[in-house]
Amino acid sequence: MTPIFLTHYTLSSALGHGKQATLAVLRQDWSGLRANDFADAPLDTFIGRVDGVEDIALPQALERFDCRNNRLAQLALQQDGFTSAVAMAREKYGAMRIAVILGTSTSGIQATEHAYHRRDPASGALPADFDFAATQGMNSVAEFVRRHLGLSGPAFVISTACSSSAKVFASAARFMQTGLCDAAVVGGVDSLCAMTLYGFNALQLVSAEPCRPCDQARKGISIGEGAGFFLLEKEAGPLALLGYGESSDAYHMSTPHPEGLGAALAMEKALAVACLQPGEIDYINMHGTASRSNDSAEDQGMRRVFGNATPCSSTKGATGHTLGAAGAVEAAIACLCLENGLIPGTCNTRALDPELGSAIQLQAVSRPLRHVMSNSFGFGGNNCSLIFGVTS
Amino acid sequence: MIDVHVASIGLCGPGMANWVDGRAVLRGEAPFDGTLPKPAAAILPPAERRRCGQSTRYALQVAQEAMTRAAFPPTQVAVVFASSDADGENLHHILESLAQPGHEVSPTRFHNSVHNAAAGYWNIATGARTPANSLSALDASFSAGLLEAAVQAVAENIPVLLAAFDLPFPPPLDAVRAVAAPFAAALLLTPQATTTSMARLRVSLGTEQPDTTMNCAALEALRSANPAARALPLLQAIAQEQRQRLSLNCGANSLTIEIERARK
pLDDT tens track of chain A, all 392 residues? Predict the structure, then answer.
């Protein structure tokens, strides 16, 4: 593919607000997970919560979009000069020529959860002040961000569970390639809510301790929240999207293909699109959720494509699993790694599962990187692998 | 501006149980009686058919119908599912459970709650490991899906199956998000014309225009009250086999779609 350049980006997660805070923590192999203090779902677990989301106030004109997910979106947009970078792009290309394509899995569902606690006892009706479309409506975050940034290009949400905000890069690249827009704001936002905590708990996938990706004693995931945003342009910059690969497992709704066939297919396609050989990938940021089945399937998929020498790690022990935002959060981590020559460790993990054969890094290592792959796999067997590179 | 070709269509909505019935209604050759269909979604294995929600059955019914008329297997086709909010009934049950003291969420309901449930069931039913997308743009979900599918067909040079579906919410959500009747439509798009192509679509994106509406009042009521039914003017133009140009809202702007009958 013709490279698409990432001219500006930002992320916010349990590791902190913005790039510098995130990088500082990643270098130290620290975890942002904390004992669950999310009042909506007091389960015995650890969570990756973003500080300060509750204190965000949306602009008055966009008040109807107020919900945890859009507050988190706004918090992230305010970091690293992202909003002003988009304003400059708007001047350059025109508001209509910039698309907004974002990923989320649960949108602003917390608003509806709260509304269900306030139903009229007699009629069952939801409270009059509840605005479904602007909060939980699945495209709410795309519409909110489009308006917040003053854009008027095509705007929609991709919602394919935990691959959502990886796939936005593929869509935006195609929109730019076919001339439907000159630039795109892509990214992902997912926020803590009762449904995902209780839902993953019902599947017995939530760990009672901070998650330990690829550990022989891993006991499940730690749910997190986060947001990442990118400005994509055709004009050359130091960071580029070089390839993407999308595939499906065609196996099971909530369990990955046991041999990682769908995952391998996504990685192979991304390499083919980027015109790169497996040996040219310097680091793979794994999906690495710390569920037994995911880590095993991903390991087999990586070995099928890369053999066992390519350094890889999961940063979910640091951020938690940010679900529909994981693609964007980890794409931003991949970019931080490229810019700063860092292979992050797999934090919280003590003893690697001996059944996993990939070169899983436990501690952060400083090393120049040219090409980084980021993997994202979701329910429904939905897979996406991205390849980013430095162009200088 | 992008050109794609419609290879086949699937349809399931009130008074239109499939494309053959729907085509007759849209051509004015049969009356629109509004009878609700019962989508069989026969492509699903029995266990999956029991587990999935009604919205997935509608989505898979039209996807399957479109593929039955196609000249290539689902394993060669990428899919784009477009829906404002996917499975509202499943969502309601989860929200009710969460509001109870036990907060017990059924595992099946939880995995059905993902917006891409229909895409996941489609891949399981067909064995297709091809890319599968699931997107939402509220009332513009069909046009966003059409744009995504057309762009993907052209950029990746592969057939792309677009399936749009929206169903009414149960109470109390129906009072805060009104969808009038269940409706689903699928279009199989190819980057080049094939011997079985029905129409060519020339799609461009421009400033917001008033939507093209339906002349029949009952069909217009359906179009305006179900995001997936925003496909009706396009389906009617294809059914009528006439050169037409229509406007379809796409959020802050509009798609202009020029429809030209395929040359036989």
Answer: 999 999 999 999 999 999 999 999 999 999 999 999 999 999 999 999 999 999 999 999 999 999 999 999 999 999 999 999 999 999 999 999 999 999 999 999 999 999 999 999 999 999 999 999 999 999 999 999 999 999 999 999 999 999 999 999 999 999 999 999 999 999 999 999 999 999 999 999 999 999 999 999 999 999 999 999 999 999 988 999 999 999 999 999 999 999 999 999 999 999 999 999 999 999 999 999 999 999 999 999 999 999 999 999 999 999 999 999 999 999 999 999 999 999 999 999 999 999 999 999 999 999 999 999 999 999 999 999 999 999 86
Global pTM reads 0.98
Do B151 and A152 count as a contact with CB atoms less than 8 A apart?
no
CA distances from A316 to A135, A376, B51 (A): 27, 12, 31
CA distance B105 to chain A (A): 6
| Residue B120, domain member (yes or no) | yes
Judge if ipTM > 0.90. Answer: yes
Domains in chain A: boundaries: 4-390
Report the alpha-carbon distance of residue B212 to residue B209 in Å, rounded. 9
Would residue B264 count as lying in a domain?
A: no
CB A254 within 8 A of CB A78: no
Interface contact B132, partner A, CB < 8 A:
yes
Q: Do the chains contact at A178 and B252, CB–CB below 8 Å?
A: no
B156 to chain A: which residues are within 8 Å by CB? 174
Q: What is the DSSP string of A307-331?
A: TT-SEEE--HHHH-B-GGGHHHHHH
Strand partners, A35: A46
**Ramachandran angles phi, psi of A76, nearest 5°:** -70, -40
In a domain, B187, yes or no: yes
In the block, which residue shows the tokens 């330990």?
A212
Closest CA to A179 of B129, B106, B1, B140: B1
Cβ neighbours of A177 (radius 10 Å): 16
Q: Shortest CA distance to B163 belongs to which of B191, B202, B195, B121?
A: B121
| B83: confidence class by pLDDT, cuts 50, 70, 90 | very high
Which of A96, A105, A248 is opposite residue B131, by nearest beta carbon? A248
B247 falls within a domain? no
- Report the distance separating Cα A193 and Cα A106, nearest Å: 8
Query: Residue B92 belongs to what domain range?
Result: 8-196+215-242
Return the active site residues of A: 162, 287, 321
CATH superfamily of A4-390: Thiolase/Chalcone synthase (3.40.47.10)
- Split into its structural domains, chain B has a count of 1
Residue type, B101: P
Kindly report the CATH number assigned to the domain that includes residue B186.
3.40.47.10
| CA gap B114, A159 in Å, rounded | 8
Through-space distance between the first and last CA atoms of chain A, rounded to whole angstroms: 18
Cβ–Cβ pairs < 8 A, chains A and B: 214
